[in-house]
């Protein structure tokens, strides 16, 4: 039963709840549960243990005020309950194009989900207001650092937390979905948790390229490719560069192996389709060729890829270029990705051009590293010359180990 004008006043609380869920479904949210705004006390303790282990890495905003993050009522004092929803962002990944391309995690291939989901939640609220015949006070959140969203969702049955820590929805809804909330002043009965389990599966831990998942504890962001390529403001640590493989923004490895993701539903909203945003693959040299932050913003406006800024995305691009050059040298990697000798030589020339003009130490160091992955006597000779002229002593010292 979808909400129709005039129904609300005559409805029981249970009917209203069902009507809200059906309306949310009609808008494209595949699952909706109602959450209470009571403090999440055991969850706060879990969260603080995770922080104490240093697993938030450089995400300083996560370290501020854990008490606030686990007290939804403090976030919005007028609120009486939260409508917690999930929506699929899934789209099929096409075959990789040949050449220097990097992979974008599925959640980021379309338009910026923060704006898209908030607009849909406001639409949901407008529909609730229509039938309520009154203004309904509500606030829409998604991926908001001020709220421990996954735990709120798990506490009230949106799904259960898998060993990779992501929320797994029932009926093979899987994990390729966002979690979002509409905290509203409508009083609704909270839902119970959903009892799901990973059973004897440990595939995500085995499939994680960097061993970032610690079962029973959570994800160590210091090692997670998603963190390293998106939130991280430093360089990519040397021992993890190879593990990035082709990931230029985010990582889906732990989700791709999860058996709950066998039959994912494609996103109901065209805003999340690859055609609307950056798409599944990025031309890596086109990132290095962007001349300014303004040019970067113009290219990635309204997409999640704006987050690491030009400096961060260029850093990721250099790392993936290094991995492609390493594969080309050892003739490993997928045959489709094999690049002609001429293509490799153009790439090497472009990287030397980048080295010559790049003012940022961190990016020059990575460009040196990327070039050193290419097994060619001529490139090594040239690299040594460049190394002698490198102006930063720390960079000079580091790169001596590569060449
Ligand atoms: C910070 C953050 C990250 C960080 C840290 C991730 C993490 N797992 O903690 C990084 C940058 C690595 C990240 C990556 C990704 N993220 Co993120 N991220 C967040 C954010 C903002 C906060 C998460 C958080 O609070 N982590 C803190 C830890 C403590 O939480 P936890 O792992 O759930 O808690 C576990 C521990 O407490 C442990 N535990 C239990 N008992 C005990 C006992 C002890 C003693 C200890 C020590 C621990 C412990 O179990 C809990 C559950 O497993 C949320 C949005 C939000 N506001 O909630 C999105 C969110 C989790 N991210 C999301 C997504 C999509 C991703 C990526 C898939 C993106 C990508 N493709 O690249 C990856 C997935 C990586 C992964 N396996 O988690 C979605 C997940 C949707 C879903 N279905 O669950 C969210 C919910 C955003 C959203 N609104 O949709 N993310
Ligand atoms: S996102 Fe990638 S690196 Fe991070 S935990 Fe999952 S598989 Fe590991
Ligand atoms: S891959 Fe296996 S262990 Fe990991 S979350 Fe999925 S079901 Fe659980």
Tell me what you see in this structure.
This protein has 403 residues and is of the alpha+beta class. Among the domains are: 7-57 and 64-184, no CATH class; 308-403. It contains 19 helices and eleven strands. It has helices spanning 7-10, 13-27, 41-52, 60-63, 66-69, 72-75, 113-132, 149-155, 203-207, 225-231, 238-244, 253-256, 284-288, 293-300, 309-330, 341-357, 361-372, 377-389, 393-400, and strands at residues 31-35, 81-88, 101-104, 138-142, 160-161, 167-168, 177-184, 213-214, 218-219, 247-249, 281-283. The strands form four sheets. Strands 1-2-7-4 form a four-stranded antiparallel β-sheet, sandwiched between helices. A hairpin with a 3-residue loop joins strand 8 (213-214) and strand 9. Helix 15 (309-330) runs parallel beside helix 17. The radius of gyration is 24 Å and the shape is elongated. The termini are far apart. The model has no long low-confidence stretch (mean pLDDT 93). Bound molecules: cobalamin and iron/sulfur cluster (2 copies). Residues 162-164, 198, 201-204, 257-260 line the site of one iron/sulfur cluster.
Share in helix: 40-55%
From the N-terminal CA to the C-terminal CA, the straight-line distance is: 68 Å
Helix and strand pattern: HHEHHHHEEHEHEEEHEEHHEHEHHHHHHH
Q: How large, in whole angstroms, is the Cα Rg? A: 24 Å
Q: Which oligomeric state applies?
A: single chain
Show unreliable segments: none
| Percent range for β-strand residues | 5-15%
Tally of extended strands? 11
Q: What does the overall shape look like?
A: elongated
Helices and strands: which structural class?
alpha+beta
Number of helices: 19
Bound molecules: cobalamin, iron/sulfur cluster
The profile of the biggest β sheet is:
4 strands, antiparallel
